[in-house]
From TrEMBL:
Keywords: DNA-binding, Transcription, Transcription regulation. One of its GO terms (molecular function) is DNA-binding transcription factor activity. SUPFAM superfamilies: GntR ligand-binding domain-like, Winged helix' DNA-binding domain. The keyword Protein biosynthesis does not apply. It comes from the Bacteria. Residues 1-66 form the HTH gntR-type domain. CDD domains: WHTH_GntR. InterPro entries: GntR_C, TF_FadR/GntR_C, Tscrpt_reg_HTH_GntR, WH-like_DNA-bd_sf, WH_DNA-bd_sf. Pfam families: FCD, GntR. The lineage of its organism: Bacteria, Bacillati, Actinomycetota, Actinomycetes, Mycobacteriales. This is GntR family transcriptional regulator.
């Protein structure tokens, strides 16, 4: 391990953790730190092995959130409890994002929508669903909000949640969810806080109905 380079990359990781969690691209990191992409790739591979960062093909490298919930505790969270927490928190997230989001944030939201549009199976659609909700939080430019959304998303690893969500993944429900996502993003682009929060609330009510029947 190149210790001097590792220290520099650690500084970048700390800065990313305080921002939106995303590290610069390998090429940009190499230019920023004055070294080859091969050396950067080696350090990132080590950080990924340690669990410090997570790399997603086509999306980039992200700082792994500090997960405040253990797998055993996550297993006790009911789908109803997860939805209740989401409905308290996420409408306020998009209301904040309506004021704080940048053009880059809007581009990322559109990208998530497009990828969800082209998803051919449940797993891909769910991945981009989660990515979109994380992008809403990232658009607030508030590290605490982003960390809280990451913890909330981690609770969805509950096996009961996964089974119920998959069972409700019908073409009609997918179309409804995706339409609601588009409505939230449109409200954000218009910087309409109230409309964004209302659209998120409507969306979460539908997801709650799909998952819990309530």
């Amino acid at each position: 391990m190149d210790r001097a380079l590792r220290r520099l990359v650690d500084d970048v990781v700390r800065a990313a953790r305080e921002a939106d969690g995303r590290l610069p691209a390998e090429r940009r990191l190499a230019e920023q730190l004055g070294c080859s992409r091969t050396r950067i790739r080696g350090v990132l591979a080590q950080l990924e092995k340690e669990g410090t960062v997570t790399r997603h093909v086509g999306r980039g490298t992200f700082v792994t959130p500090a997960d405040a919930t253990s797998p055993r505790l996550r297993a006790t969270f009911t789908p109803a409890a997860i939805m209740s927490a989401s409905m308290v928190f996420e409408p306020q997230v998009v209301a904040l994002a309506a004021s704080a989001a940048t053009e880059d944030d809007f581009a990322e939201l559109r990208r998530c929508l497009e990828r969800a549009d082209s998803a051919t199976d449940y797993e891909s659609f769910e991945q981009w669903d989660i990515s979109l909700h994380r992008a809403f939080a990232a658009a607030t430019h508030n590290a605490q909000v982003l960390a809280m959304v990451d913890v909330l998303n981690s609770t969805r690893n509950n096996p009961v949640w996964g089974r119920l969500k998959r069972d409700g993944f019908t073409p009609q429900n997918r179309a409804t969810i995706h339409g609601e996502h588009h409505a939230i993003v449109a409200a954000l682009i218009d910087r309409d806080r109230c409309r964004a929060a209302a659209a998120m609330t409507e969306h979460l009510r539908f997801v709650r109905l799909v998952v819990t029947g309530q």
